[in-house]
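Ops channel
N.P.: pipeline sanity check, posting one input/output pair.
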């Protein structure tokens, strides 16, 4: 007997772009953001691989830069590629099947010696997108880590203000830095998210409390504020260890 559910293993790779297609009517589809896809090279001989597993019904339609509707029985293999101009892609699943489709993503990092570490990679459904100001915390400053903020929209160009504030014990702080303006790209292809990214080295700063004491580990709140309160977006902050390449991810609270 064939299994009632089909497991889709999504192999994510950088390759030639998906064939151009006229986007279908997606009014009966639900968008799902896969924020990172494929394999990426990092500093000091490191590399990163984003992978995704999907469990769903035996037959459903989806749009990911090309249109496909087919029946899968047993083990199936689909190749999704990152969108041009963004490190991920929006995959639209037909609405009647969407509640039954389950996603699990992970991000693997490898140092120069090929030692592997993994972290869960969020997969973002429409209800997970936020509007208005959002905050990511607690982000620990560390001169041995690099910090990058990625902002995604549902294909629209939008303006954001990014800032960071120190989190002292017992309350909030007015010691804030940043106020950096970020503008996401736009796209007419519903599989391509609006996207922007910034390095946070000037916001998550080295704090020296006493002379000759060196950098002190400090907790930050990172604030992302859209210019329009109606903008639907999703921010993702990564903190990557420069030696081990281990990654910690922060999502909106």
């Amino acid at each position: 007997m064939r299994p009632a559910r089909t497991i889709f293993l999504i192999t994510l790779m950088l390759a030639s772009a998906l064939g151009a297609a006229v986007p279908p009517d997606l009014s009966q589809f639900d968008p799902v953001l896969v924020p990172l896809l494929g394999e990426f090279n990092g500093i000091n001989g490191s590399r990163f691989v984003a992978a995704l597993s999907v469990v769903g019904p035996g037959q459903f339609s989806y749009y990911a830069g090309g249109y496909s509707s087919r029946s899968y029985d047993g083990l199936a293999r689909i190749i999704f590629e990152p969108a041009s101009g963004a490190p991920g892609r929006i995959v639209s699943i037909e609405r009647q099947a969407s509640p039954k489709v389950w996603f699990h993503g992970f991000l693997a990092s490898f140092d120069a010696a090929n030692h592997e570490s993994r972290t869960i990679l969020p997969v973002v459904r429409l209800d997970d997108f936020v509007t208005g100001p959002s905050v990511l915390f607690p982000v620990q400053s560390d001169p041995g880590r690099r910090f990058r903020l990625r902002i995604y929209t549902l294909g629209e160009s939008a303006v954001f203000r990014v800032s960071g504030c120190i989190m002292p014990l017992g309350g909030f702080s007015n010691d804030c830095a940043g106020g950096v303006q970020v503008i996401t790209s736009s796209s007419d292809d519903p599989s391509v998210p609006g996207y922007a990214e910034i390095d946070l080295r000037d916001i998550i700063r080295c704090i020296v409390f006493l002379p000759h004491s060196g950098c002190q580990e400090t907790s930050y709140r990172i604030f992302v504020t859209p210019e329009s309160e109606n903008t639907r977006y999703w921010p993702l902050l990564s903190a990557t260890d420069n030696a081990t390449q281990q990654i910690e991810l922060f999502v909106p609270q």
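N.P.: looks fine end to end. The longest strand covers residues 47-56.
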